């Protein structure tokens, strides 16, 4: 009898427990109400004159043997580097960017209109420099002097800024101001109030270097090459998510 009563009590307790937890489970299953938001974006730009140029120069020499081509190339490049250093270009601003030794081939035509196997007739040695010029007033004269000392292949000049942080900060401020202004206009037009900031993100890309000079270089250059630096434009896009005040 006692065991039967105990079993009934346990069953009643289990039933009551299930009844208590059912409402909680039902509440947990209800979908969460999503906060009303507004997403706006703004773009800011800041343009500043470049204060540094990155210049590519190459010395190319050909000879019947690899040793002779390498010797001629090394001699010419040594003179170029010595001249650059004499013009106060620091070691940190002179960097070898490419070096190659390539065979030169000749392929003759046979009597039966087929081609004979190619044969090596010489070698070409190419030695490239990447040069950072921090005094832009020197740029034209540096190119002219380098050509006269043996540089016979030119890369491109790209103008950049050593430290563009101030310009980027200005562009950010303009982007945020534009985004905030958009948010105020939209909420006023919709008859709602702007709430707290939920999220801010930005997209920023440095301006692509613009090649300003690219050509095979002639030793006949008598005057310093004219160079126009222009301006670098830094652009920042800001995305802001606001809550709509309820």
UniProtKB/TrEMBL annotation:
<keyword id="KW-0732">Signal</keyword>
<feature type="signal peptide">
    <location>
        <begin position="1"/>
        <end position="28"/>
    </location>
</feature>
<protein>
    <recommendedName>
        <fullName>26 kDa periplasmic immunogenic protein</fullName>
    </recommendedName>
</protein>
<dbReference type="InterPro" id="IPR007497">
    <property type="entry name" value="SIMPL/DUF541"/>
</dbReference>
<dbReference type="InterPro" id="IPR052022">
    <property type="entry name" value="26kDa_periplasmic_antigen"/>
</dbReference>
<dbReference type="Pfam" id="PF04402">
    <property type="entry name" value="SIMPL"/>
</dbReference>
<dbReference type="GO" id="GO:0006974">
    <property type="term" value="P:DNA damage response"/>
</dbReference>
């Amino acid at each position: 009898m006692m065991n039967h009563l105990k079993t009934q009590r346990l069953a009643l307790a289990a039933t009551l427990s299930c009844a208590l937890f059912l409402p909680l489970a039902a509440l947990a299953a209800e979908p969460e109400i999503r906060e009303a938001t507004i997403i706006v974006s703004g773009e800011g730009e800041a343009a500043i004159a470049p204060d540094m140029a990155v210049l590519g120069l190459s010395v190319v020499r050909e000879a019947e043997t690899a040793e002779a081509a390498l010797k001629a190339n090394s001699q010419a490049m040594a003179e170029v580097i010595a001249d650059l250093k004499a013009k106060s270009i620091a070691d940190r601003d002179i960097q070898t960017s490419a070096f190659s030794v390539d065979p030169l081939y000749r392929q003759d035509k046979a009597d039966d209109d087929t081609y004979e196997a190619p044969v090596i007739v010489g070698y070409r040695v190419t030695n490239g420099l990447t040069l950072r010029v921090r005094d832009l007033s020197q740029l034209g004269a540096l190119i002219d002097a380098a050509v006269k000392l043996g540089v016979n292949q030119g890369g491109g000049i790209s103008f950049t800024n050593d430290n563009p942080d101030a310009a980027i900060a200005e562009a950010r401020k303009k982007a945020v101001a534009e985004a905030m202004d958009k948010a105020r206009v939209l909420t006023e037009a919709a008859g709602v109030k702007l709430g707290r900031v939920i999220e801010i993100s930005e997209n920023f890309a440095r301006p692509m270097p613009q090649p300003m000079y690219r050509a095979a270089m002639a030793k006949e250059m008598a005057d310093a090459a004219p160079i126009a630096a222009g301006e670098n434009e830094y652009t920042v896009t800001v995305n802001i998510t606001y809550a709509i005040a309820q």
